[in-house]
Amino acid sequence: MTVTPPEKTEKSKTPKEGADTGAGGEMGPDGRMFILTGTALVAAAAVGGLVMRRRNATRG
Known about the structure:
By secondary structure, the chain is an all-alpha fold.
């Protein structure tokens, strides 16, 4: 014997417009700014390390 669920009297309501979640890209830095800043810091540290190594090697 198969039992069917009772009919729903209420239909789900889907909003016609999207939810307001904030200003998006217009407010503050996005992820690209953090990636570029981090890349610049790593590059500066690498260059600084090479310069320090070269100066230390020539004193020998």
